[in-house]
Amino acid sequence: MQRLPPVEQFRSSSGVDIYRLPMVLFPNNFSGYAFVLEGAGALTLVDTGSGMGRSNDDLLDGFRQIQAKFGRSFTLGDIERIIISHGHIDHFGGLAFVKEHTDAEVGIHELDRRVLTNYEERVVVATKALGIYFERAGIKPSLRETLFEMYGFAKKHVTSIDVDFSLEDEGFIDGMEFIHTPGHCPGQVCIRLGDVLLSADHVLSRTTPHQSPESITHYMGLDHYADSLRKLLRYEGIRLALGGHEDPIHDLYGRIHAIRASHNRKLDRIRKIMRNHGAPMTISQISQAMYPDVEGYHILLAIEEAGAHIEYLYQHGHLTIANLKEFEAETNPAILYELHD
Question: Which of 12, 28, 260, 331 could link 196 by a cystine bridge, Cβ 3.0 to 4.6 Å?
Fold first, then answer.
């Protein structure tokens, strides 16, 4: 069994106590955090974990640790407000479990609201869009079926749930400022509490957050993500950022520049791969060249990551479609890209 770090307490310059609760989110030992905010009006829980495996038990254990380590006697049932940072299952999948313990109001950005309120519909729409993308990426039919199975596996335990309010960009609630930062997810929000930022999955300490093409889901894609990184750079005075995974970030602005540099390296790598190949390539071929050793679910992530960067290069005029006549004549053929530099 994976051993988690202990609950930690952080205090913002605005007087909010932030308790970071670790959880194992998926059976492959992928971990992350929920946050309890005390001092920002109603007692607030930010994110709920995945609801899978031991995630719910880890959440409850986090509340027990808050009482044992910090002398705060509140429980999950005392939560008065729930904020979901974005509509990815490792951040909202435990919401139904949490709602069994409290009648707290739930808030999420409006671009991710339907992920919660019309979950079954969103899965159907997203799966359909993913299938179209797979065809255009040139993925073989046998691999498509495997990828669909992996894509749907973690989504079966979740059902629709009501949302009570929407989070507005640059809106305030009890001293919490919500900053809409789409790219990794359409409705991703960061939450500023004085000199502390809850950066969710927009900025992480070690990992460059996963990117998926906007051709699959609107308000995703590398262009939106880059814009959102630039947006955060305009917010001065942030001493500490706490991501939804990994370690605290003590130099948010330096970390943002490092993430931007990482994406530029990926863009350069794609150009080099295509130059060395010497002939038009599909997204699938480029993905295999970029990530030759990935297995399992990481194959899907690699195809999306490569596709997001290829989409960016195409949008910015660095690539053209080599088989345009075929693309025009057929229903949904694989697209062959070539460099236009």
Answer: 12
